[in-house]
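Feature request disguised as a bug report, sorry. It would help if multi-protein outputs had a clear separator. Right now it looks like this:
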Amino acid sequence: MQLRQVALLVSALCWCTPAAAQDLDRASPESVGMSSAGLRAATDALQTHIDDGDIAGVVAAVARHGKLVYFEALGQRDLEAGDPMPEDAIFRLYSMTRSITSTAVMLLWEEGRFQLDDPIADYLPQFADQRVFLDASAPDLERTRAREGDITVRQLLTHTSGIGSRSSQIYRANAVRLRSISLAEMVDNVAAMPLFEDPGTRFRYGVSTTILGRLVEVWSGQPFEEFLEQRIFEPLGMTDTVFWADDERANRLASVYRPDRDTGQLRPYAIEQVPFTERPPLIEGGVGLLASVTDFLRFSQAFLNRGTLDGTRLLSENTVDLMLQNHVPTRAMPIGGGYMAGSGWGLGFNVILDDGAYSWPVGEGEYWWDGSSGTRFSIDPEHGIVTVIMAAVSPSRGGGFREEWKTLVYGAIEDPGN
C-alpha cells in the first residue's frame, strides 16, 4: 500500500537578514575529513576553465555533514561590464527547477490532495481525450491514434507521460511553449497536442513538470509562485529563488555566454525572448526559476537531512525516501545512454543505480540533476556531501568544468567514513 503521511505544518523561519538566512555553519575541510589542499586544486581547475574561455565565471560550494567547507566565486558575472562574479550571484536554473516543483507536488501529496496514480484528467479535463502520434520519430498531426491508458501524476513526475520536450520541432512549430503565454495557456497547448507514445511506456524528458506546476495551482488554490514562496522558499530561507530578477537582483544575474562557432570566444547569448529581468507571463515549473548557489545548497541540504533544515521540517522522512526511489517502470528502462543508462528517475531527481555508468565520482544512493546553462547539484548520502556549482554557459558543458570540479572535490575526501 502506498505510504500516506498526515499533513505537516510547515513553519516559517524566523525573520533575519538574507545572508544569515542562507549561510550554513562553516567548518574547515579537515574537520569533516576533507583536504584543504585538495579543494584548492578544484578551485585551480575552475580558474583554468575561466582562463581558457570555457566559462566566464562560476560559483561553487561543498557542504559535508551539514557544514559548509568550500565556497568560491571566480571570474566575471558579465564580461562586457567587467563585473566580478559575486558570491550571491543569481543563475538560471533551467531543469534544476524540476526538483523544486516536484517537492511542491509532494507537499500536497502529504496533505492527501491527490494520489500518485490519479489520472491528471481528473484535475485537468483537457487531457481526457489526448491522442498519440502514429510515429514519434516523425510526428504528424494528421497521423494519430487513440491513446492507451491515462497520464498519471506519477508519470508526470517521472517523465513517462508521453508528453514531449520544449525543444521538439513540432512543439516549436506549433508554439506550444512560449514564455510570453500564461501557464494555463501552455497547459492547454500541451493537451491539444498528441502524445509521442502511450503513458508509462518510455522515458521522454520534456515539459511534464510544467504541467505539475499547474496542478499545484489546482490542488492548492494558489498561484504557483505564491505556493513555492510560502511553502518552500520561506521555510528553507531561500531568499534569492525567484522567477524573475527585478531591482537589485538584476545586478547579480549572471550573463549567459555561448562560444563563437568560428573563434570559440564567449559571446553574449539570449536563450529566451522574454528576459529573466522581466516578470514572464509563463510561470514555469519545468525550467523557469533563478537561484543563488547558497539557496540551492540549503534546498539540497534539507533533502540530505531527509526533509528538515535548521529545525524546520519540510517533508516527512518517509516522503523523502519515496521520492528517491526509482519510479520508472521496467518496460521504460533504461532511460537513456551514457550515464543515463546507469540512472533511474525518482519523484523529481535523477537517482543513480549504477555508478559504473558515470565518468565522474558518485556515491551510493546519490541523486542529482543539472540545468542547460551550466548548473548542477548532487546529494550524496554515502559521504554526507552536497555539491552545487553554477555558471552561465550554453551549451552547458563548458569544457567539462562541472565533471572535473566534482572529481577533484571527491579526490579531496581523506576520510570517506567521517
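(second protein starts here, but nothing in the output says so)
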Amino acid sequence: MSSASGEIVFPQGMILPARALAVVRDEAREPYRKDFLMNHPRHIVRALAGMLAAGLMLTGCASPAGNETPSVGSSSATSASAAFDADASIEIGSLYEPSNLSNVDAGGQGVTEAFNGNVYESLIKLNDDGSLTNLLAEDYQVSDDGLTYTFTLREGITFHSGKELTSADVKASFERVTSEASQAARKSSYAVVESVATPDDRTVEFPLKNRSISFPYLMAYVWIVNPDLADAKTEADGTGPYVFDEWQRGSTLSIVRNDDYWGEPAKNARATFHYFTDASAESNALLTGEIDLVTTIQSPDALTAFEGNDDFQISEGTSTTKELLAFNDRVAPFDDARVRRAVYSAVDREKLLESIWAGRGQLIGSMVPPTDPWYEDLTSLNPYDPELSKQLLDEAGLADGFTFTVQTPNYDPHPA
C-alpha cells in the first residue's frame, strides 16, 4: 500500500507477534476509516493493536478472507472508496505523544506514527509485505560493482511550503540523519555511505564503502525534510499527502489534507491524534465514541470489550514487532556461552508466545522478522530442552543454579 495513495499511514523482532490487531467503530463514519493504513506491526488499529511497517488498512467490514485486508487497488477497496466523505475528519487515539516533531532528535515513536508516510516521505517506500517501490525517487540504478546507487527524483514535487524538491534537499536530509548530533535509530547503518553527490537537481549519487544489499531498504527510513525549516522539533515541511496543522502538547496533534500533493490526493480532510497516558482511558474513549480508532494495544486481553461487539471491527495484519531475550556477555556468568544456551534452552517459547500474545504470533529464531530480505528460519536451533539446560549449567559449574535480574521494557507491545 503506497502512501502516494493518500491514505493515513501508521509506521513500521525471538518471538514475533505475527498478527496485528485493529479495532474501529463500525458506524456511519466507518467508511472513512478505510483510509487508514496500519504500517506498524503493533497498532490496534491496532484499533487496538499494532502492525508492521508493513501495515494494515482499517475497515469496518470483513475482508475477503476474514483476516486479510484488501489492497487499495482491489475491487472491494475500490467500491468502498465510493463511500468516502471527502470532508471526513478522523479521530485517532494514541499512547505515544511525541516529545518533539523530529525523528532525529528523539521525537519518539509518536512522531513516526503521525508523520511517516503522511507528512514526510522517503525516496523508497517499504511496503506491507516487505517489498520496496519507488516513492519520491522515479527510479534508481546500481553500478556494476554494486558500490554506487544513483537515484533520479520525480519531477514537479514540492514541499508543503511550496519549495520545489531538489537533489540538494535529499542530500541535506540524508546528512541530517547521519550528523554527529543525530539520534536517529538507524544512524550507524548509514556508515556504509562514502559520500553524497548531486550532479544535477534531479540526481543523487551515493558511493558506498562496500556493497550493501540493504541500502535501498535503509533509504526507506530517510525522511526528506525541507532543510530551510527553521526548527524541525516544532515545525514540519514535507512532501506527503498530509500537512502538519497543529500540536497542542498533552492533548492532540492534527494533520490536514495536502491539496497540492503530487500523488493521489488524501481521502480524508483531517486526522487528529488524541494522546492518552492510560491505556484503559484510551479504550474507554473508543467505546464511548470519543475517538474512532486507537493505534496501540497493550495486550490481547484488552480486546475483550470489543470482541463480539457489532459496533466495532477488529482487523489483523502481520507485524514486525519482536520479543527477544538478550544477554550481556561481558558480565559473568553470561560470558560463558554454555550459560547463555542453558537459559535459552530452559524457556518454552511456544508457551511464552501463547501467554503473552494468546497465540497471535510466530517463533522466528532470531531478531530478524520474516519480512526482512536477510531473514533465515533458525527456529530449529536451540530448542526447548530442560535436561540440556541442567547439563550445561553443571558443565559451567552452576549445578545448583544462580539468580539474575531480567530487565523488561514497560511500553507497548511489551505487557510485562
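Even a blank line would do. Unrelated, but nice: The longest helix spans residues 167-178.
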